[in-house]
Amino acid sequence: MATSITIQQAAATTGLSVHTLRYYEKIGLIDPVPRQSNQHRLYRQEDLRWIEFLLRLRATGMSIQQMLRYAELRRLGDRLGSVSERKALLEQHAITLEADLLVLQDTLAMLRGKIAIYASQEEQLKALVDT
């Protein structure tokens, strides 16, 4: 991949719209993206890695507000308070995800049980039709 890509290419790479990329930059979720002399944004690898991380957080239910707090802390650098609070945010999110996974696993087990019941009923009904 090139060392930097346009906003359209970044949108295609990340699956976000151009509008969303601009919005994320405007609200401070993404740091200001370097620009060419014509003011067109040029996304770097580090920008894309950060966006990928944000997308993973979002896909797992982290709110924009929490992501903004994490981004603010990240901008403070590797200071004890910043690192500790980022770690705490991620730990809390991991606990939430683990609880969500337990609910999903329980639901999946219930669905598999229902599917097994229907499979058994199908076999019984097919046997009746074949006789």
TrEMBL record:
<keyword id="KW-0238">DNA-binding</keyword>
<dbReference type="InterPro" id="IPR009061">
    <property type="entry name" value="DNA-bd_dom_put_sf"/>
</dbReference>
<dbReference type="Pfam" id="PF13411">
    <property type="entry name" value="MerR_1"/>
</dbReference>
<feature type="domain" description="HTH merR-type">
    <location>
        <begin position="4"/>
        <end position="73"/>
    </location>
</feature>
<protein>
    <submittedName>
        <fullName>MerR regulatory family protein</fullName>
    </submittedName>
</protein>
<dbReference type="InterPro" id="IPR000551">
    <property type="entry name" value="MerR-type_HTH_dom"/>
</dbReference>
<dbReference type="InterPro" id="IPR047057">
    <property type="entry name" value="MerR_fam"/>
</dbReference>
